[in-house]
Specification:
The chain contains twelve helices and 18 strands. It has 509 residues and is an alpha+beta fold. The protein has four domains: 145 residues, GAF domain (Beta-Lactamase, 2-Layer Sandwich); 93 residues, PAS domain (Beta-Lactamase), CATH 3.30.450; 70 residues; 151 residues, Histidine kinase-like ATPase, C-terminal domain (Heat Shock Protein 90), CATH 3.30.565.10. The radius of gyration is 34 Å and the shape is elongated.
Length: 509
């Protein structure tokens, strides 16, 4: 379904500033829907049609009442005769009330409110609800409807939505959180039951109605700031007993003069407790990764000590390879120890891995340069660990087999002497819709004729094939470079294995 900006650009001649004004409105109009116990729909003129047709840009249902619409009408275009009250509100540039017969047994009461900005009507907000048989029966209903009427007049005067409004980070406030109606002198005229319960948790046990807002403990400066700035203000208070309340103050204006305010209060004690638990768990997980990294480095040191005591060259090489593999895993844990979650940018791991391999294979007789190209986006920690080992093995395999020492030292065999690099290896990262591709490309001697990676018996390629195909559900292939000499080792990991703990796979930004 198209968004409000997309619909506005496609159907109307509204510019980006006016569209942003409507976006500000729909970001908080759940509050208006709750106050009016009604569906709210937003119309704009369809500039593509010469007959003054209307396009429905948005619709929201109330949480305090029953919706009139089961179907979604957003994006539909209506001829003027089908929405006469909306057309009248556009033309008269004032609020229009009326009744619409729906079928033979139902009458819908409609209030069309012009949405104005800088003296211009840019849209019409329609409140649609079943015509009541008589006036609302409860004080709460009467108060909510009165507050909605005050906001409707602010819309008509261009005073709502506010400019430079603060927004809650977690969600849009709703009336069900708890509502306080405050007059221009700072006294509470009405408190909903949920608001009273929230204040009781804060220790306010005396009567709320008639009390001064400053005495509630919600933050005396919030109301004064909202009146002075003519915009919504948010404040959060947390008591020593860890009771936390978020307050959202909306000033009610009349020609720029504050005549009162509504304050939505929400008890977020449990939410903040969970936040603290998550922070604590994150810190614990990072500490675990840090300790694992330290333990791996200790193991590497022990293996190096053991290698120095061995006389057999084959045994020392085997321990050296183990040290390199442990180092690859250690790099991942070091990166995770600095991350706030269990996902890491794979490119952040690749470059330290390159240094690990360069340190283990670098020598005057084997001068090879390794470079990194592209980006792989963010991957889960487990995938990063597996791919770190895979990439390390492929790099080591490329250096060992693509560049025999004799070739690198002999300029006539394709190498150079001295300290300049006689060969190169490129790591190419490519994140696509179907998965992640990692290529290790070299300009070495190439693969032997008839070589098949499935038949490779070496430990390195056996580890790579097992990890890629068994753990990651991907595949690997080794092929000659298309133009020139060398080898391409390509690993593909499907998208479904790149999914993080919250079920989302993220491409590079």
């Amino acid at each position: 379904m198209a968004t409000l900006p997309e619909l506005a650009r496609a159907h109307s001649d509204l510019d980006e500033v006016r569209i942003a004004h409507l976006q500000n409105l729909v970001s908080v109009w759940g509050l208006l829907a709750d106050l009016s116990f009604a569906d709210l729909v937003l119309y704009a003129r369809d500039s593509r049609q010469a007959d003054g047709s209307l396009v429905l840009l948005g619709h929201i249902r109330p949480t305090t009442g029953t919706t009139l619409y089961r179907a979604d009408l957003v994006g539909q275009v209506f001829e003027p005769r089908r929405r006469p009250l909306i057309v009248k509100a556009f033309e008269a540039e004032c609020t229009v009330d009326g009744a619409v017969e729906v079928g033979s047994e139902r009458t819908v009461h409609l209030t069309a409110v012009p949405v104005r900005r800088n003296g211009e009507t840019i849209a019409v907000l329609a409140r649609e609800r079943l015509r009541p048989e008589d006036r609302p029966g409860s004080e709460q209903e009467r108060t909510y409807l009165t507050v909605f009427d005050r906001f409707a007049r602010m819309l008509e005067r261009g005073e709502f939505p506010y400019q430079d409004e603060e927004r809650l980070r977690h969600r849009t406030p709703r009336v069900g959180d708890g509502l306080l109606l405050v007059d221009s002198d700072g006294r509470i005229e009405f408190a909903s039951p949920n608001a009273v319960s929230t204040l009781h948790r804060m220790g306010v046990t005396r009567g709320v109605t008639g009390a001064r807002f400053d005495d509630t403990g919600l933050g005396s400066s919030m109301l004064r700031s909202a009146f002075a700035r003519r915009t919504a203000v948010i404040d959060e208070m947390e008591r020593p007993d860890e009771v936390a309340v978020v307050s959202h103050c909306f000033p009610l204006l009349d020609a720029g003069t504050p005549t009162g305010a509504i304050v939505l209060v929400r008890d977020v004690t449990e939410l903040r407790r969970r936040d603290r638990q998550l922070v604590s768990k994150d810190a614990t997980i990072r500490e675990i990764h840090h300790r694992v990294k330290n333990n791996l480095q200790t193991i590497s040191s022990l293996l190096r000590l053991q290698a120095r005591r061995l006389e057999g060259e084959e045994a020392r090489e085997a321990l050296g390879e183990s040290v390199r593999r442990i180092g690859a895993i250690s790099v991942v844990h070091e990166t995770l120890a600095q991350s706030a979650d269990d996902e890491v940018g794979f490119a952040e791991i690749v470059r330290p891995l390159v240094r690990v391999v360069e340190e283990s294979v670098s020598s005057p007789l084997r001068p090879v340069s390794i470079t990194v190209e592209g980006d792989a986006g963010v991957v889960p920690g487990q995938v990063a660990t597996t791919m770190a080992v895979v990439l390390t093995e492929l790099l080591q395999n490329a250096v060992d087999h693509a560049f025999p020492t004799a070739q690198l030292a002999d300029p006539e065999a394709g190498g150079t002497d001295g300290d300049s690099a006689a060969g190169w290896v490129r790591i190419q990262l490519d994140r696509r819709a179907d998965g992640l591709i990692v290529r290790v490309v070299d300009d070495g001697v190439g693969i032997p004729e008839g070589f098949d990676v499935a038949d490779a018996s070496g430990l390195g390629l056996t580890i790579v094939r097992t990890f890629v195909e068994g753990e990651l559900g991907g595949h690997i292939r080794l092929v000659p470079v298309e133009r020139g000499r060398g080898t391409v080792a390509e690993v593909w990991v499907p998208t479904n294995r790149l999914v993080g703990p919250w079920g989302d796979s993220r491409d590079p930004v």
